[in-house]
Amino acid sequence: MLQLVIRRLLGAMLILLGVAAITFLLLFMLPADPAVQLAGRSATAQTVANIRHELGLDRPLIYQFLSYLGHLATGDLGRSYTQKTGVTTLIMARLPATLVLMAAGIVIEVTLGLVLGIVAAINRGGMIDRGVMMLSFVGVSAPQFVVALFLLYVFAATLGWFPMSGFGSLGHVVLPATTLGVLGAGWYARMVRSAMIDVLNQDYVRTARAKGVSEVRVILRHAVPNALLPIIAMIGIDIGQFMSGVVVVEAVYGWPGIGQLAWQAIQQVDIPIIMGVTLISALAIVAGNLVADLAAPFIDPRIRAR
Amino acid sequence: MRTKWIKRAALAGFLALSPLAAHAAGDQVTVTYKDDIATLDPAIGYDWQNWSMIKSLYSRLMDYTPGTANLVPSLAESFTVAPDGLTYTFKLRSGVKFSNGREVVAGDVKYSIERAVNPKTQGPGAGFFGAIAGFDDLSGGKADGLAGIETPDAHTVIFKLSRPDATFLHVLAINFSSVVPKEAVDAAGGDFGKKPVGSGAFTLKEWVIGQRLVFEKNASYYLKDTPRIDGFTVEIGQEPLVALLRLQKGEVDIAGDGIPPAKFLEIKNGPDAADLIVDGEQLQTGYITLNTRIKPLDNVKVRQALNYAIDKDRIVKIVNGRATPANQPLPPLMPGHDANYKGYAYDVAKAKALLAEAGLPKGFSTVLYASSTDPNPRIAQALQKDFAAIGVKVEIKAIANANVIAAGGTEGQAPMIWSGGMAWIADFPDPSNFYGPILGCSGATQGGWNWSWYCNKEIDKRAVAADSMSDPAQKDARAKAWGGIFTDIMEEAPWVPVFHERRVVAKSKRMGGPGEIYIDPTRVINYDAIFVKH
What we know:
The complex is a heterodimer of chains A (306) and B (534). Chain A has 306 residues and is mainly α. Chain A has a domain at 87-299: MetI-like (MetI-like fold), CATH 1.10.3720.10. Helix content of chain A is 80%, strand content 0%. Chain A is built from 13 helices and no strands. The two termini of chain A are 12 Å apart. Chain B is α+β, with helices and mostly antiparallel strands. In chain B, helix 10 packs antiparallel against helix 12 (348-357) and helix 16 (457-467) runs antiparallel to helix 17 (475-492). Chain B is globular, with a radius of gyration of 24 Å. Chain B has a domain at 284-501: Dipeptide-binding Protein, Domain 3 (Dipeptide-binding Protein, domain 3). In chain B, the strands form four sheets. In chain B, strands 1, 8, 9, 10, 11, 12, 13, 14, 15, 16, 17 and 18 form a twelve-stranded mixed beta sheet that branches. Chain B has a four-stranded antiparallel beta sheet with strand order 4-5-7-6, with helices on one face. Classes of the chains: A mainly alpha (306), B alpha+beta (534). The interface between A and B is large, with 60 and 68 residues.
């Protein structure tokens, strides 16, 4: 067990190093020059040269990369070019909002997925089943910005049930979290449905029914826990999905998380922020997968036995 | 560190569940923007969002009468200019205090300008101070201060210039000249932009990154009856469309990002239009740069032909009429603008004839760069259509601003650039600001903003001569000299001036005052002057 953790952590380090190297290279291949961008439209050649020098952009790329890694090793993500504030400060100030959004997204996708999946499985082949599967198909395939604008139009602009954008109350979190959750809910509904159908055909379910257990109890007590297993393993992987989704969702809903931070930094060629958010996202994905792997044996005794 | 972070996460969770804290009493104004405020450090901040906030947080020796381009002493009580135009002496007001309680003294003025020039600050405004003696030494890293700023006593500042600079009083009124206290800059440890301390009309009370900034009235501000509101809150992350709906409901007072094009006509034709829309001239020109170093645009006849080809009235319609067609670089409000100049009127036949004269009767193919943000790609398409009518096939490259700017500043790369969304809006109301960086030889360098790469040594000499006329009595002669420079430049047609864009701000019905204080030519929103009607 411990060995697995260590091995995975080492792997994670390598992945992060790779992500850092690729992002760094890509950013420096851009034609946009951060020094020119920062110096603004009234700058003289001297000002541009001074800024380039102060940022260390006039040094060889390999030197810049190693120096970035050196700082990274001490937990220093550098300073934002445009804001001059430490990137760690900026990310930490916004990370809680992103985590709230992701947690709410997970709650919504699991709840929705579970309920829809169970309902579909019970009504297998019926109209409800077909309707739910159709809906989940739409949920899985619709691009997030379309879902975001659709929800915004229907539930905020037309019906006025929720605020249109911003942060600060429970009402604010519903639409962005639903946008994030719809994609996963579609997958889960399908997974739960097929797992349930599987389980409902198992001998022990038949035995339970035969001994006179009520149908509600059969489903909730005997079938659902077994159907849940694959979903729990998926949640960790979902964190990665969410990380790519938050950029769009936060931009549309004005959610003050790290996705919005990244979006603004990209427009301003603020390399330290882009690097920082990318690394934090990569870290979250790696951590999510690790947790999913480690949690599996606790949830499913069959894995532990192996 | 970790516990602090957990606390923050808990707080964020709590905030997500609780309504916003109650606002302070008095006339509180709510302003919205989509993008975060980058910085409130006056030596760094240089975008149209933070520009007006920095104006109101700090004071400067000179300022402008609200809503106008008239220079007046501000932190300075009075000033004198030596006859040779090389020495400026300022007397400071006494008793002005920073928000940390300390009195503002002459040494703070010297420190602040040296800080703006010092390469370590990485400020974009350093070049504005180029006329102060000792500038090259500080900018080149050979000195720690500016030899040309002297402070004989606590309330006197003397500037010694190395060359006459007629724009110098304007320079002392731009944000980069804002006075800051050294101890607060040092205490902020490089993060002064988030912990600003100034002596302006407002102080920053709270900044929740990514969410809001709360400004509070400076009760002891030195100008009487200024500001006229008790505070304002800037809410961040608001989509322009959402902000507009909230404004109509009365939840927002100023929608900082203006009115999205899709909504403009609906609002304009609505019943409350007169109360909600402020539509004002600004010191802006949108133009196409014609790269004088790329064939066949190096031929003046070709550039003139392209000037005749554009139907500017139609382009203005694309921006819902929120612009005035342009025929010269200087906008109408700028001193030196020549109202009698005719320029190149829309004339397809003449354009074709000029192309034929240039030996290109069948036209040619070229590339037009443009910003990818709306409405610029649509404008580029309209330009493309106009050029096609005279046989010039244009390929449009609509890309991110930073990449257009990079292409423009690389010699021989961008044949044509539509400047919309990037250039040019004056830093201060003086015609010289429309020359040096964008039409002068000094801007025609790697990373520069003279995207036509136009460099006329004769014109450069005339520009220097005009900027030496620093005696206020020569004001009109100087404006005339500058006007002549720009119309002469148009003979060589390095640009196609297309329009002067007006700015549109949406404000709630309760906000009072003339439109000029919401679209102030030197401030955008003038927080010092706006007020709530009672």
